[in-house]
Structure of DMT family transporter:
Amino acid sequence: MNERPANAKAAALPDTKAILLGVACGLGAALCWALGFVATRHGLKVGFTPVDLLMHRFLWSGIAFLPLVVRAGLRDLCGIGWGRGMALMLLGGPVMSLISYAGFMFVPLGHGSVIQPSCATLGGLFLAVVLLKESVSLSRAAGAVVIVVGLAVIGSESIGHMGPSAVMGDLIFVATGLMFAGFATLVRYWRVSAFSVASVISVLSLSLFPLYAVSGGLARDAAIGLHENALQAIAQGILAGPAAMYLFAVSIQRLGVARAAVFPATVPVLTLLLGWLLIGEPPTTLQAAGLAAVLAGFYLAQRQR
């Protein structure tokens, strides 16, 4: 009599483990991104350019992953294929990162760290419905609306108090958030390996290093000092780069795009908290209000009903 329930419970256990792993990886990716945002803002303050930060983002991980990618096979790019690999590199690699770094030259940490991940969440929910035909509950749809309200509050600060350059910065982060949503959707749609995605993007990005070297980038890095370069190598080259990509790709595979897309919305609160503690940038009143709305939207978006 009790055999069927016991079997059903045992069968459900792997799903529970998969969900817990997906949640843990999603939150881990969010923490890595938050540290990357804070390190980016700090790096620009001490003299790095967006291109310098881009080099740190992909050079070290690319060198580490190169032997593994060569061993797995360059002909089909670790089973991903060159066409798919280039598409993923465009949406989730150096192009997106460079645009994002440039955004922090126009707006403070409280804008980019909220707008980009929130737009990644909104874009991920939209593409999950349109392209992947995943169902999105009424609660998640309501959460998306509340997130939009939070973004509008933050955007109003740029329009009313900071000027056209700040609006440009906000739009940059909207664009990069949507680019990352496209990246996340393609990872799920093509069912590619999480490790392969992280390693291939890093290795393909190595092709940009010779151009960086001949343009005087290494001299700029040397002038800033070893300590600051080591900090960016860890924050950009490990945490915000392959570690975050790998963890988020695993989260997508375990939870699906619609559920995994809500984790980028946890990045703002982590970033603002770390930015306040580590580099002394407290959020303004409007930024805090917008963040509160975004967090409320995240709560609604992650509910099961």
